[in-house]
Design goal:
- 28% of the residues lie in helices and 22% in strands.
- It has 285 residues and is an alpha/beta fold.
- The protein folds into two domains: 208 residues, 4-Layer Sandwich (Metallo-beta-lactamase, Chain A), CATH 3.60.15; 61 residues, Winged helix-like DNA-binding domain superfamily/Winged helix DNA-binding domain (Arc Repressor Mutant, subunit A), CATH 1.10.10.10.
- The chain has a seven-stranded mixed β-sheet, covered by helices on one side. Strands 8-9-10-11-12 form a five-stranded mixed β-sheet, with no helix packed on it. The chain has a three-stranded antiparallel β-sheet with strand order 13-15-14.
- A hairpin with a 4-residue loop joins β10 and β11.
- α3 packs antiparallel against α4.
Length: 285
């Protein structure tokens, strides 16, 4: 992917540099994007996988400047494992999303959880970390994971959206930690903000964020409508729904689609619109 070079610092604006990790996959697109915020002292957002080459690239971009904080949006292994070696090398505290111990035997299609993630300080809605000329304010955006945070940079009206809003695809919402009800509420929350630009964990910067978020809300409501129409024709198992809803989907992405449909079904169930019966689902009406 020559058009997406890994390990090379790219200046997005005076306060923000992006470094792409070499972990491209069907679920990470071109790879995880680490963002470095600041000029004289720094914050490193989502340092990514524990890849020696990527960590070396981050150190070159840091260029011996003090790191005030290693900031984490959520605890998936394509975002947080590099916190440990980077902390050892810089002495910076790990701050951000809460740690989470998920006991789930169910199938997973997204990046698995980083069981060793251990922040020094957990941030909640409105908490912040600061440095010379920059502030990162935590915005709680659960849905992709229960502990997901976005981070606003009020000095330039930018938002680091992690995996909640990505620049290439809608995010995976995989129960039980992923929650469609929370995800939709978090999108609505962002619609009420006036951020100028989003810097996501995957994909290009989003310079018309309100338009994209509005489209994501519409896309999810469209999927919900598809599910309800299918179930009105009779009870169905999830694989049969996915086959009808995602025509032509590559086999490697089918598990993610099944988890997404399950998330929608749980949301519809909480609203009293569908019922689970063994391996099938049906409408209540």
């Amino acid at each position: 992917m020559a058009e997406h070079p890994t390990g090379i610092p790219i200046q997005l604006e005076p306060l923000v540099v992006r470094v792409l990790a070499p972990n491209a996959s069907p679920y990470t697109y071109t790879g995880t994007q680490t963002h470095i915020v600041g000029m004289t002292d720094l914050a490193v957002i989502d340092p990514g996988p524990d890849d020696p080459g990527h960590i070396e690239a981050l150190l070159r971009a840091i260029d011996s400047r003090p790191v005030k904080a290693i900031v984490v949006t959520h605890h998936h292994r394509d975002h947080s494992p590099a916190t440990r070696p980077l902390q050892s090398l810089t002495g910076a505290p790990i701050v951000g999303a809460a740690p989470f111990d998920l006991a789930d035997a169910g199938a997973r299609a997204d990046a698995s959880f980083d069981a060793a993630y251990a922040p020094d300080r957990v941030l909640a809605e409105g908490d912040s970390v600061t440095g010379d000329g920059w502030t990162l304010e935590a915005i709680a955006t659960p849905g992709h994971t229960s502990n997901h945070l976005a981070f606003a940079l009020p000095e330039t009206k930018a938002l680091f959206s992690g995996d909640h809003v990505m620049g290439w695809s809608t995010t995976i919402v995989s129960p039980p930690d992923g929650n469609m009800t929370a995800y939709m509420a978090s999108l609505e929350k962002l619609m009420g903000r006036d951020d100028r630009i989003y810097y996501p964990g995957h994909g290009e910067a989003i310079d018309k964020p309100q338009r994209l978020v509005r489209g994501m809300l519409g896309h999810r409501k469209q999927r919900e409508g598809q599910i309800l129409r299918l179930l009105r024709d009779g009870a169905r198992p999830i694989p049969a729904m996915v086959e009808r809803m995602y025509v032509g989907l590559g086999a490697q992405l089918v598990p993610a689609a099944e988890r997404s449909v399950l998330a929608h079904l749980y949301d519809l169930q909480t609203r009293g619109l569908v019922i689970e019966e063994g391996e099938t689902w049906r409408t209540t009406a």
